[in-house]
């Protein structure tokens, strides 16, 4: 009986590697404001005046340190663009495939800053660029300090 050489032996093992990722001072502030207060915050570039959302330490255009002065945005906003997704993808907040089709939008928050998120409205006849929306947050007990603490943005009439 021939023996296998060591080069032919393959062992498959599953390794769990739990880890924590720090959001950093600026992103953590945004995530904590979403979790605790249902608010969006940004900071500003002292040189060009641009609102930095999500907040960050340096303005990517001017390469100068951003202000530590916090600005509240929204919570309402205006749909700048949207698409209807017909491909089922895993919802990061549930780990399950998201029922499709569903609209995914780029929203300009009041005061500035863009956020990408789901829309509650799914009727293509009612979706339009320029529609006013507001976030619907999960109950506080379910929030973890992440954009998925927002269920979706719903249409508001003003
Ligand atoms: Zn700048």
**β content, as a range?**
25-35%
Q: Largest sheet, order of strands side by side?
A: 6-5-4-7-8
Low-pLDDT residue intervals, each spanning 5 or more residues: none
Number of strands: 8
Please, what is the average pLDDT?
92
Rg (CA only): 21 Å
The CATH architecture assignment of the largest domain turns out to be Beta Barrel
Q: Can you tell me about this structure?
A:
This protein folds into 2 domains: about 20-75, no CATH class; about 75-158, OB fold (Dihydrolipoamide Acetyltransferase, E2P) (Beta Barrel). About 10% of the residues lie in helices and about 30% in strands. The protein has 1 helix and 8 strands, in the order αββββββββ. The protein has one helix at about 25-35; strands at about 40-45, 50, 70-75, 75-85, 100-110, 115-120, 130-135, 150-155. The strands form 2 sheets. A 5-stranded antiparallel β-sheet has the order 6-5-4-7-8, with no helix packed on it. A 3-stranded antiparallel β-sheet has the order 2-1-3, covered by helices on one side. A hairpin with a 4-residue loop joins β5 and β6 (about 115-120). Zinc ion (ZN) binds near residues 45, 47, 48, 59 and 62.
């Amino acid at each position: 009986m021939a023996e296998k050489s060591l080069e032919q032996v393959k062992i498959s093992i599953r390794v769990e590697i739990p880890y924590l990722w720090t959001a950093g001072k600026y992103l953590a502030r945004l995530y904590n404001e979403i979790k605790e207060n249902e608010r969006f915050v940004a900071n500003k570039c002292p040189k060009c005046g641009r609102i930095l959302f999500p907040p960050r330490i340096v303005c990517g255009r001017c390469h100068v340190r951003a202000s530590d002065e916090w600005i509240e945005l929204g919570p309402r906003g205006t749909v700048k663009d949207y698409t209807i997704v017909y491909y089922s993808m895993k919802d990061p907040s549930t780990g399950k495939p998201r029922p499709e089709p569903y609209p995914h939008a780029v929203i300009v928050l009041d005061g500035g800053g863009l956020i990408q998120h789901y829309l509650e409205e799914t009727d293509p006849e009612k979706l339009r660029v320029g529609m006013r929306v507001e976030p619907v947050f999960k109950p506080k007990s379910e929030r973890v300090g992440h954009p998925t603490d927002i269920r979706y943005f719903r249409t508001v009439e003003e």
